Amino acid sequence: MGYIPIAISCADETRRCWAPPRDIPRIEYALNHPLLLSGLSFHGDDGGDAGRDFDGDGGGGKNEKRGGGGERPERIFSIGASSGGALAAELVTKQISQAAIVMVMSLSDPVVKQMRKSPKPTYFAPMPRDKGTLQRVQRNVEALRRHGDENGGKGTAKSCYILDNESCDSLPLTPNYLVQRVPQMTREAAMTLTTKLKEVGHIDPGSNMLIVDPTKSNWRNIISPSNSTHWLDQFALKPGYSPLAKALHRAWAFHEYCSEVVVPALHFFEDWYNISKNYSNTYD
């Protein structure tokens, strides 16, 4: 099985929060885009469609197809964090996607109620440090699984919800970690950064774990006192545009995207659909 990743940004460029009434039509439009429906095959050297703007009137999203042929992929899996995680679940309730990864977010009671009507595989990935969200996600999963019990555990309704409360835990902030996470990061630069943060008590020297929250601390001033926009004239520091900041936030692990769960979640989705298919074939 192969995957085509499709990255879609929310319309809110200020708060960067997803809103279903505004953003779901945009997602539908992207999923019906001619380049996707034609298998992303185009030719840029012969006057073809490369670089062409297919948005037309800028609206759409009602399953219209504007040429290019082809059909939607057999299965679409939605992945999101925070408000994007809640939206990923809503896409499942609206039959737009067939499975969801919900990172660092709990779901509202109305969304849980909709999910009960047509169970689909959902992988919940909260961060243990955020105890409030973790507890709410646990209640979400308990409610969804209890619904499976109330229906006699029929089919795979009870087993299609995974709660992973370990994979998104805090990580040691080491030079190797930074080299793996931050584009263009060198071991020398990573050593410099971790050493400076240890000197001011932001990193525990024994465990290499962050002990000061980087989303609230002055770590930027510590490593780059004379340049507030870039460190070493190379690594962006501006909030919201800094891979380095994202790496520190993931190491702290309170409310951040958690890539560690993507592969196990995809394996779970594939296995679930194989099991579900076998069950359906047996009992239909």
How would you describe this structure to a colleague?
The protein has 284 residues and is an alpha/beta fold. It has helices at 20-31, 34-37, 83-93, 109-117, 131-150, 175-181, 187-199, 219-223, 243-252, 262-283, and strands at residues 77-81, 99-103, 122-125, 161-163, 230-231, 235-236. The strands form two sheets. Strands 1-2-3-4 form a four-stranded parallel β-sheet, sandwiched between helices. Helix 4 links the parallel strand 2 (99-103) and strand 3. The longest helix is centred in the last third of the chain and has 22 residues, at 262-283. The radius of gyration is 22 Å and the shape is globular.
What is this structure, in a nutshell?
This protein has ten helices and six strands; from the N terminus they run H-H-E-H-E-H-E-H-E-H-H-H-E-E-H-H. With 284 residues, the protein is α/β, with parallel strands linked by helices.
Low-confidence runs: 40-68, 279-284
Largest sheet: 4 strands, parallel
The fraction of residues assigned to DSSP E strands is 5-15%
Order of SSEs: HHEHEHEHEHHHEEHH
Reconstruct the topology from this structure.
Elements: H1 20-31, H2 34-37, E1 77-81, H3 83-93, E2 99-103, H4 109-117, E3 122-125, H5 131-150, E4 161-163, H6 175-181, H7 187-199, H8 219-223, E5 230-231, E6 235-236, H9 243-252, H10 262-283
Parallel strand pairs: 1-2, 2-3, 3-4
Antiparallel strand pairs: 5-6
